[in-house]
Design a protein that fits this description.
The longest helix is centred in the middle third of the chain and has 26 residues, at 77-102. The protein is elongated and about 70 Å long. Strands 1-3-2-4-5 form a 5-stranded mixed beta sheet, sandwiched between helices. By secondary structure, it is α/β, with parallel strands linked by helices. The termini are far apart. The protein has helices at residues 2-6, 19-43, 49-71, 77-102, 114-122, 137-143, 149-157, 172-180, 208-219; strands at 109-111, 127-132, 161-166, 188-192, 200-202.
Amino acid sequence: FLLISLFPSIIKIFPVPGKWLETFKEFMGFAMLLSCVWLLWILTSQINISSVMLIIAILIIISFFIWSLEKSNKSKITRAISLFGFLFSCIFSIYSADNSQKDLETVAWKDYSPNVLEEATSSGKPVFVSFTAAWCINCQFNSRVFLDKEIVNLFKTKDIQAIQCDWTNRSKDISDLLKSYGSASIPFYVYYPAGSREPIRFPSIITKNKIIKTIEFEAQK
């Protein structure tokens, strides 16, 4: 729409409105469904699963009634069965993905609190601090790094204290800590080498090699 408003002549390359436009509109509805799934996933970290399931059930019921109203003059049971099967498959896929993720070994994170961070940095052991949130797409992209076996083993062998600052529900303590590092956005990562109070900052898009090289380099000093 922005391009067409800037260059109206572009509209000439589009075919005239017709059945294809209706199909395109319906197809784009799947993008809306995916956005809904993502928002519901974020909700799971803010409320209990029973409440989330209730919300999903309500959304399905609303969708069914909207669909029924549209198709009431063309009563076709097969369409209802197809819709039910699609929704059931989506919900089943979400739970399957969630359960498979739980089976993976990850870095042993401790929840952040000012006392936890103070104790960790005073222990003389290396400390890795991660700032993340469920609604942060880049954070979720980066999280796969901490499922890597090499990273998990590195954190174990180096006895690295891993602290996770979960900013899904805004926290003043975490906001203040971010500001103390000179940052106001996430993802954000810092590493305290053993016996050091000077944090090393990582880029927002973190990689396995970057983590390994930094930790190994600092361990050799």
